[in-house]
Amino acid sequence: MEVNASILISVGIAAVIVRSMRQFLDLPTRMPHLNRLIGYFWVPGLLLYLFSLLIQWKTDQLDEIYTLFLMAMVVLVLVRVQDYRPARTILLAVVPYVAYSAIELLSGTLSSSFMREYKNLFSNSQGFAVIWLVTFVLIARKQKKQLEAERVQREAEEKERREIAAQNAVLESMVAERTSSLTLQTEELQHALEELKTTQAQLIQAEKMASLGELTAGIAHEIQNPLNFVTNFSDVSAELVMELEEEQQRPERDQELEAELLADLKQNLQKITHHGQRAASIVRGMLEHSRASTGERQPTDLNVLADEYLRLAYHGLRAKDKSFNATLTTDFASPLPKIEAVAQDLGRVLLNLFTNAFYAVQKRKEQGETGYAPTVRVATRALPGGGVEVRVHDNGTGIPEAVRQKIFQPFFTTKPTGEGTGLGLSLSYDIVTKGHAGTLAVETEEGQGTEFIITLPAGQ
């Protein structure tokens, strides 16, 4: 019965070993089939136990046979999972002990005297095998912990990668949505920009038409003078022709009178021609101002251009307000070198500056200031190097400091709604600076007056 009990104890120990091996090697996950197979470890033990009861065979080698079977089963399992590094270490730990157990069992079966003779050797070998087994089991446990830590780290990294991938997917979705939104906004802005350009072109045209209307009013008054001269001298010439015809029909003709009449008639015709050319020049200037600029530069006398547009701007304002009067003073340098410029463009600039000057002095006059005399002054001078300078000064209301830096910005105006588009000075600035490589500056003192200074380089 003692032998039978030892077999049962060996089966219990085997249960503990199998359970530990399953957990250590994670057999249910790694090799489910092998895990189920080793679950029958108790069958050989039970058979040996029944066999010992049947034949009443009492020998100490029964539990050694079962232990050797168990160790062989462990080796088989370790060989099957040797791709797992701790399993290889356990295999290396078990092999010496299995070899010792097999040799001991075989020696005891063949010769008990041999066992007694080399009892110390077998005891030392058993101790070495046990120490080897324990040492490598500890190493295997350390390896398992290290692998477990690496697995946990890999899982954490994998989880982090999945989270990053999920975040990237969300970000890509947000970027795609934002890109789509920006694309739509860009298309809307492009459409708005096109509409703005169209509106700007219309406003620029309206500004040109407004200046053309003011110019036309001035021209209508200015052209009246030469037309009156033409009409008057034509009437006088007609009377002279009639007197000449009457003198030619008399029996006794007065040669001196006829010569005097012919001289007067010739002088009248010359004056008619002069004033007709003056009227033609005004009409030609109006046509040049109204047509689109060709950009072709020609030698231009700024004295003539400034004088003509000053008078046209003044008479244009008087056509709107008959009660308005101002003193016009000119200080034209003589001689003034001609510059290569687009005359109709510079004419628009000068007309705008003159119109603004008359507007400023008119507003100051409306304030009812005692002793105030509206004055607009235009001066030109030659610059070193061949350039010229034009100064347009008025003693009007001046420009406030707060808006001084904005006056050349498009659509900015200090005039009430309906009296200005805010494009006059902006277009003038572009014409002078971009179109003619010059400068347009302003000097002003609020309540005292304003002076615009145009500098233009010499023609190439």
Automatic annotation (TrEMBL):
<protein>
    <recommendedName>
        <fullName>histidine kinase</fullName>
        <ecNumber>2.7.13.3</ecNumber>
    </recommendedName>
</protein>
<feature type="domain" description="Histidine kinase">
    <location>
        <begin position="218"/>
        <end position="460"/>
    </location>
</feature>
<keyword id="KW-1133">Transmembrane helix</keyword>
<keyword id="KW-0418">Kinase</keyword>
<dbReference type="Pfam" id="PF02518">
    <property type="entry name" value="HATPase_c"/>
</dbReference>
<feature type="transmembrane region" description="Helical">
    <location>
        <begin position="89"/>
        <end position="109"/>
    </location>
</feature>
<keyword id="KW-0808">Transferase</keyword>
<dbReference type="InterPro" id="IPR004358">
    <property type="entry name" value="Sig_transdc_His_kin-like_C"/>
</dbReference>
<feature type="transmembrane region" description="Helical">
    <location>
        <begin position="121"/>
        <end position="140"/>
    </location>
</feature>
<keyword id="KW-0175">Coiled coil</keyword>
<feature type="transmembrane region" description="Helical">
    <location>
        <begin position="37"/>
        <end position="59"/>
    </location>
</feature>
<keyword id="KW-0597">Phosphoprotein</keyword>
<dbReference type="Pfam" id="PF00512">
    <property type="entry name" value="HisKA"/>
</dbReference>
<keyword id="KW-0472">Membrane</keyword>
<dbReference type="InterPro" id="IPR003661">
    <property type="entry name" value="HisK_dim/P_dom"/>
</dbReference>
<feature type="transmembrane region" description="Helical">
    <location>
        <begin position="6"/>
        <end position="25"/>
    </location>
</feature>
<keyword id="KW-0812">Transmembrane</keyword>
<feature type="transmembrane region" description="Helical">
    <location>
        <begin position="65"/>
        <end position="82"/>
    </location>
</feature>
<dbReference type="InterPro" id="IPR036890">
    <property type="entry name" value="HATPase_C_sf"/>
</dbReference>
<dbReference type="InterPro" id="IPR036097">
    <property type="entry name" value="HisK_dim/P_sf"/>
</dbReference>
<dbReference type="InterPro" id="IPR003594">
    <property type="entry name" value="HATPase_dom"/>
</dbReference>
<dbReference type="InterPro" id="IPR005467">
    <property type="entry name" value="His_kinase_dom"/>
</dbReference>
<feature type="coiled-coil region">
    <location>
        <begin position="137"/>
        <end position="209"/>
    </location>
</feature>
<dbReference type="GO" id="GO:0000155">
    <property type="term" value="F:phosphorelay sensor kinase activity"/>
</dbReference>
